[in-house]
UniProtKB/TrEMBL annotation, chain A:
Transmembrane segments: none annotated. Belongs to the cytochrome c oxidase subunit 6B (TC 3.D.4.8) family. This is Cytochrome c oxidase subunit. Pfam families: COX6B. Its main location: mitochondrion. Disulfide bonds join C25-C57, C35-C46. It is found in: Mitochondrion. The keyword Mitochondrion applies. The keyword Protein biosynthesis does not apply. It comes from Hibiscus trionum (Flower of an hour).
Amino acid sequence: MADEIELKTAPADFRFPTTNQTRHCFTRYIEFHRCLSAKGEESNECERFAKYYRSLCPGEWIEKWNEQRENGTFPGPL
Amino acid sequence: MIVREWLFLTMAACDAAEPWQLGFQDAATPMMQGIIDLHHDIFFFLILILVFVLRILVRALWHFHYQKNPIPQRIVHGTTIEILRTIFPSIIPMFIAIPSFALLYSMDEVVVDPAITIKAIGHQWYRTYEYSDYNSSDEQSLTFDSYTIPEDDLELGQSRLLEVDNRVVVPAKTHLRIIVTSADVLHSWAVPSSGVKCDAVPGRLNQISISVQREGVYYGQCSEICGTNHAFTRAPGNIGRLLSPLWLSRTTRGATHPRSKLLQRAAGAVGSQGARQ
């Protein structure tokens, strides 16, 4: 069927095999922004990382981190 | 109760707790099947031990009597029996531990890549669900709150303290990743028939992977004391079911309807392609 949506989400990551997935979300968020700074804002290659972190992180966290990045107070290595 | 069931045959909730229920709810996932099987396996040996110990106890009490045995035996020591009654009881837990650990670790295992990620975020006292696999920006996300329906607003056939206003709808026979977290205090996301109970900790994301094997409406309750309304506003989610790939449009819409209507509509969606919209 043409109109069928493909079910797809962030794959299981061997770096994060445990129940605790907090780092998984955080790492994917950092990976996306590192990718952006390496490849440039227009690059489409980073889109998959964005999909991963959006799948994994609660919206509230993403909002907070985005705000922190704007203010330059983001705690992670970007 | 019986009269009510007789009048409304469709009311029997298969995947919710029943009055005076002693056993498990029907398994909906391989995980729950494993739990039930392990329980039954262990219970077999448990009953054997119980009968054996009771026999010793009752026999000793029965024979320790001033008329039947005026002169009691005065055994204070016996090396053989002491070794036996130490070794045997310590071997039994070892044999119980083998299948138990096997099940425990296989439940944690993420075997295949999940197809859908659902975020269940605990609040006092409701749950927020996020489906964001198809977001193309940080702002848009399919998010909805799921509150328990208050007792006064229940419709006929709805379960008290179990029914919610917005159900979670997920596909059956699909590997799901459920990310459980909390926005305020500790909660716990639990669905008994799926064999799932996962603590929701603020600032931490806990993952559980389930694969629901059959379609149905599943109920669960918060399993961590989370404040005054924990007992009355238990508000975890109900796993609904999914029948068509176009479930996103359905997740919030069909939810306010009583169970039967949801099922009817869902069944219609599977039957004909025209109903998919």
